[in-house]
TrEMBL record:
Pfam families from the UniProt entry: CBFD_NFYB_HMF
Stated name of the protein: Transcription factor CBF/NF-Y/archaeal histone domain-containing protein
Domain Transcription factor CBF/NF-Y/archaeal histone positions: 15-71
One term of GO molecular function: protein heterodimerization activity
Amino acid sequence: MNESKFGELAKFLYPSSAISRIVKLSMGSNCRISRDALDMINRCSILFSIYIASMAVSESQDNKRVIVNYTFVNKVLETSGFHSRDILTPQ
């Protein structure tokens, strides 16, 4: 992905409060994290979303499908090392 396209997508950063809550849940409420670190985690979250989406599109195209569905996204997550069924199951 070229830099200008990523810069365009970076406009869609997640709310800082949401990222902060996620970090506190994973690290514990007594842990402190700087704004720079939260910003970097936010940008990494966007990058991760872009990666998973692009890989799921490739997977659906390999299967000659037009629609990217849960199965393709789940397959990409599993092959990337994310196996937590509790969190990844659709609500």
